[in-house]
């Protein structure tokens, strides 16, 4: 493994998580919403939107419908905990940086 490859993978994962959250926010704000509109609004390719929607569906955060993606009963609790989970992850990364 070349130097920096591990960090590159982490950066790619963070970028993908950012996209998933962008797609999720679009559903929350505009439900029902389809792939084409999300792609046009967010600037991601259709296949990237489709992948994010599939992941969000597997997590029970959205439901696909004929009219487009919609939120579920799991959406609100997830949003309620999201800031805390991001803060905890950030704290872990800071601790790693400082060697704690």
Automatic annotation (TrEMBL):
Superkingdom, taxonomy of origin: Archaea
UniProt xrefs under InterPro entries: WH_DNA-bd_sf
Name the record gives this protein: Transcriptional regulator
UniProt organism field: Haladaptatus pallidirubidus
């Amino acid at each position: 493994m070349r130097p920096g490859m591990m960090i590159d993978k982490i950066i790619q994962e963070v970028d993908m998580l950012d996209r998933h959250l962008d797609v999720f926010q679009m559903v929350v704000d505009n439900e029902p919403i389809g792939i084409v509109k999300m792609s046009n609004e967010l600037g991601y390719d259709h296949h990237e939107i489709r992948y994010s929607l599939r992941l969000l569906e597997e997590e029970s955060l959205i439901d696909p419908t004929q009219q487009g993606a919609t939120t579920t009963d799991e959406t609100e609790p997830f949003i309620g905990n999201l800031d805390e989970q991001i803060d905890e992850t950030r704290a872990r990364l800071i601790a790693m940086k400082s060697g704690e």
